[in-house]
Design a protein that fits this description.
This protein has no helices and 11 strands. It is an all-beta fold. The strands form 2 sheets. Strands 2, 4, 5, 6, 9, 10 and 11 form a 7-stranded mixed β-sheet that branches. A 4-stranded antiparallel β-sheet has the order 1-3-8-7, with no helix packed on it. β7 and β8 form a beta hairpin.
Length: 116
């Protein structure tokens, strides 16, 4: 079965960095676009970044463009989110997502808290 396991979240100060990882299994990883979303308390889940199956194209939400970088290692079945210059507005649970044959799968999420 499809499994997505996020890790790397934590509590950081404004301006610091974190790198999130999402380990995938149960599907052919290198054939699917992967994405990161986040959900802050009291808000809807929102798109953060996406990367195509071979890593050839990425796109980002305006709010993170220039600060966050998505990447993937198809040999390790893992997608990453490098987050720099973190701000309090980045505080959220971050989720990894994949869509396979019109079915959407989510990980359990990892908490990122940015303290001022």
């Amino acid at each position: 079965q499809v499994q997505l396991v996020e890790s790397g979240g934590g509590l950081v100060q404004v301006g610091e960095s974190l790198r999130l990882s999402c380990a995938a299994s149960g599907f052919t990883f290198n054939r699917h676009t992967m994405a990161w979303f986040r959900q802050a308390p009291g808000k809807e889940r929102e798109f953060v970044a996406r990367i195509t199956c071979n890593g050839g194209a990425e796109n980002y939400a305006n709010s993170v463009e220039g600060r966050f970088t998505i990447s993937r290692d198809n040999a390790q079945n893992t997608v990453y989110l490098q987050m720099n210059t973190l701000q309090p507005g980045d505080t959220a649970v971050y989720y990894c997502k994949v869509t396979i044959a019109a079915m959407t799968y989510w990980g359990q999420g990892t908490q990122v808290t940015v303290s001022s």
